[in-house]
Prior knowledge:
Layout: E1 5-10, E2 28-29, E3 32-33, H1 34-44, E4 48-55, H2 60-64, E5 73-77, H3 82-94, E6 102-105, H4 115-128, E7 135-140, E8 146-149, E9 154-158, E10 165-173, H5 174-186, H6 194-201, E11 206-210, H7 223-233
Parallel strand pairs: 1-4, 1-6, 4-5, 7-11
Antiparallel strand pairs: 2-3, 6-10, 7-10, 8-9
Helix pairs in contact: 3-5, 5-6
Amino acid sequence: MSEDYLALIPAAGIGSRAQLKLAKQFTEIGSKTIIEYAIDPFLLDENCKKICVVTQEENDIWNSLAISNHEKIVSCIGGDTRMESVLKGLEFLMEQEDKGSLVAIHDAARPCLIKEDLQKLMDFASEEMKDEGQGVLLAHQPPESVSLGNKNKITKTLDRSKVWLSATPQVFFLEDILRAIDNAKEEKKVFSDEVGAALNFFDGTITPILSDRMNIKVTKKEDLVLVEQYLKLSGRL
């Protein structure tokens, strides 16, 4: 059984790669924004105690959404990078919550997280994560062959059974991941996700949990078509 946990949603990015008029997390699909779909599984999970959404300063779009006033949701101002925004969100939560709380960090641009994967992830975290530096994340393995190389030359073929493509949520103890990211900042290192920061600072085990392959992150404009079709098929749109 899952224990109570916190959720952190970094949503301060502008998503320049998507080439959209708005930041991708605030782009509408149907009657809701991408970030609303991303938050929904946590709102529906009774074990999720609080959701911290990290936004740009004075974000009128976020403030205009009814969900921003939900009793489970708190907001704070982020930084210039994803890692800085996550750090500010963690610091905000640390002021209010127990340092030993589990925190699930989820991309605001991942609107297709299913409740079964969230439940499986949090069950594992509650039952198996006991020691400092441990973590767990949703991930999937590539069906294609995987190689290393540069633009003009393949240099090495990898064993795809040992390759994990990281998704979110990524779950850690609040104090642990705060220390790891704070250390990365001091060392002037930048990580694209929390797993990288945790592995840099701790020797703890990070466990991948196989997730639905449609738990994709909206990165480019064409991803919106795929997400819309999936949300329709899953009855969420």
